[in-house]
Amino acid sequence: MLPIITSLVQTLAVNGLGLLAGAVQAKGKEFIESKIGARIPDNPSHEDLIKLKQLEIEQEQLLLQYTLKQKELEIEESKLLAEMHRASQENATHRWQSDMGSDSRLSKNIRPGTLVYILTAYLLFALLSAMGIDINEAYVRLLGEWGQLVMLAYFGGRSVEKIFEMRMHCSNKKEEAT
Q1: Which of 2, 72, 75, 162 is the least buried, fewest Cβ under 10 Å from its Cβ?
Q2: Does 170 lie in the same domain as 111?
């Protein structure tokens, strides 16, 4: 069924029925047929295309609403994803600030300690492999992925923390000046 819709959408678009093609692609052929009150042939003839163009002109407002609504939903989804990412970054920064403010040496040193451990283990695997000792590939791959994750979180997170600290410092200076 999908190739028929794709072919239909292409045929409509090529023949100057872009608005109808967009609506069919966004909402589906059956839905648009029910809204405009006409059948859209899978393989429209020249006469069908002329009739569909007349219907498109008559139903232009409705078709525009469907196309615009689809674009609005895409924009809202992008905004929501960006907000979720921002909130996630803020939460990580707050957790790390809490760790640094703690009196516990473990919480202050867990990130660098984890990074050192993973890099040391990875080096050990490399040395054992160089000496001819076979290391299971799954362990090496898993350790490599952990290393990437920890490095990204540690160095990327530290950058976010530094930016946050600079903003807080600037805000405090502005408050002191007023």
Answers
A1: 2
A2: yes
- DSSP character for 43? S
DSSP 156: I
Task: Please answer whether residues 165 and 101 qualify as being in contact, where contact means their C-beta atoms are separated by less than 8 angstroms.
Answer: no
H or E segment to which residue 103 belongs: none
The number of distinct structural domains making up the chain is 2
**pLDDT tens by residue, the chain, 178 residues:** 455 667 777 888 787 777 778 777 777 778 777 777 778 888 888 888 888 888 778 777 777 787 788 888 888 988 888 888 888 778 777 776 776 677 777 777 777 888 888 889 888 988 988 898 888 888 888 888 888 888 887 777 666 666 766 776 776 666 666 6
Q: How many CB atoms lie within 10 A of CB 94?
A: 11
How far, in Å, CA of 77 to CA of 74, rounded? Answer: 5
- Reported pTM: 0.34
Please give the Cα distance from 145 to 163 (Å, whole number).
Answer: 27
Q: Are 55 and 32 in contact (CB under 8 A)?
A: no
Print the domain residue range for 171.
Answer: 102-177
